[in-house]
């Protein structure tokens, strides 16, 4: 399965169009399940999707988390001649990093590794990079080189090269991460790829978004403040409010696989749709999916409905489970479970997010 990631949509619909085919590959969780290691790993590396949005960590190091269900990757290249890497395009973080030939961790043994010595355009930065992943981490160093995304070359782009990586990265298909969020979230104050694209004029900052050629649904503009939506969001099941009565704040994040919310709210949603908690995971009889109700998010006066076929995930090893996950604090994250259903545009020029039904 392939999607197309449109980089220009991060600013607005302009004359340029950068397309990167996204592949839906096997997730780390699926690989761990096949090897009978999932139960061990999920307790050793607990899922904390809120970590990278904690303002306490906005400077210095960038906490991230083990999201074993991430499935979508795209190909970029770094250096001259180009060295190719699979990366997660993450709107919830800001750094670009890939494994390096100096990495000896098991996680680097089965991934592509960047060799700065074979690139004629590489420049050393001398700075260190440390990105924390719950109970593990990625550590490495910074350098500059040409980064090519969708055929557009960004010269002298700062990026990270890992020297050590957390063990769970061994089971992920992606080699690294390309962050698309605001510069203030960037570890080591590294300028994000997209900001350099704007600086070099590779993408435009023009007319307001109205991507009607992609959908006939109404586009909803949502205020964006440092990647956090600032409009009321409420959640209903069968017309009954089950979460965020009066409104909550939410993040639209391509680097989170599930829909994440406060534990009490997630418990209410799962209870209303008939999902039971088993050993810390919300499980359901796979034969019941066709009878389960929709979950509707009300955003800026518009309804965004997620059917059971979208919020229930099936595994041949562990049965069926919900795509709603417990977070920490009051913030919500609308991850891949939501984004797969709705076309999203992130407008950096006006700090807006546009949503419309995907077709």
TrEMBL record:
It comes from the Eukaryota. GO terms for biological process: digestion; proteolysis. It is an enzyme of class 3 (hydrolase). Transmembrane segments: none annotated. Residues 72-356 form the Peptidase A1 domain. Coiled coil: none annotated. Disulfide bonds join 103-108, 244-248, 286-320. InterPro entries: Aspartic_peptidase_A1, Aspartic_peptidase_AS, Aspartic_peptidase_N, PEPTIDASE_A1, Peptidase_aspartic_dom_sf. GO terms for molecular function: aspartic-type endopeptidase activity. Keywords: Aspartyl protease, Digestion, Disulfide bond, Hydrolase, Protease, Signal. The active site is at residues 90, 253. Residues 1-16 form the signal peptide. Its EC number is 3.4.23.1. It holds the Pfam family Asp. Belongs to the peptidase A1 family. Shows particularly broad specificity; although bonds involving phenylalanine and leucine are preferred, many others are also cleaved to some extent. This is pepsin A.
């Amino acid at each position: 399965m392939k999607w197309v990631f449109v980089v220009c949509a991060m600013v607005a619909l302009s004359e340029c169009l950068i397309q990167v085919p996204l592949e839906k590959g096997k997730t780390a969780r699926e690989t761990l399940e096949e090897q009978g290691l999932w139960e061990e790993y999920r307790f050793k590396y607990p899922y904390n999707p809120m970590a990278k949005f904690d303002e306490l960590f906005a400077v210095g190091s960038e906490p991230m988390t083990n999201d074993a269900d991430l499935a979508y990757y795209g190909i970029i290249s770094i250096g001259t001649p180009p060295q190719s890497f699979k990366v997660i395009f993450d709107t919830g973080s800001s750094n670009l990093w890939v494994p390096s030939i100096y990495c000896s961790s098991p996680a680097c043994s089965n991934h592509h590794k960047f060799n700065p010595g074979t690139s004629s355009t590489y420049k050393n930065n001398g700075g260190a990079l440390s990105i924390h992943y719950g109970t593990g981490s990625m550590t490495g160093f910074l350098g500059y080189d040409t980064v090519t995304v969708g055929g557009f070359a960004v010269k002298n782009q700062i990026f990270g090269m890992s020297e050590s990586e957390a063990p769970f990265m061994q089971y992920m298909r992606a080699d690294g991460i390309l962050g698309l969020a605001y510069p203030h979230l960037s570890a080591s104050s590294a300028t994000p790829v997209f900001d350099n694209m704007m600086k070099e004029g590779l993408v435009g900052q023009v007319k307001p978004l109205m991507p009607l050629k992609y959908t006939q649904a109404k586009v909803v503009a949502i205020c964006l403040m440092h990647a956090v939506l600032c409009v009321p969001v409420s959640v209903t099941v069968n017309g009954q409010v089950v979460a965020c009565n009066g409104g909550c704040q939410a993040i639209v994040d391509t680097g989170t696989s599930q829909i994440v919310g406060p534990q009490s709210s997630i418990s209410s949603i799962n209870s209303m749709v008939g999902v039971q908690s088993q050993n810390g995971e919300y499980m359901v009889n796979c034969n019941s999916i066709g009878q389960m109700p929709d979950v509707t998010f009300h955003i800026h006066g518009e309804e965004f409905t997620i059917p059971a076929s979208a919020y229930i995930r099936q595994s041949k090893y562990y049965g069926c489970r919900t795509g709603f996950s417990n977070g920490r604090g009051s913030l919500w994250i609308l991850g891949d479970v939501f984004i797969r259903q709705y076309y999203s545009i992130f407008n950096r020029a006006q700090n807006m997010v546009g949503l419309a039904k995907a077709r």
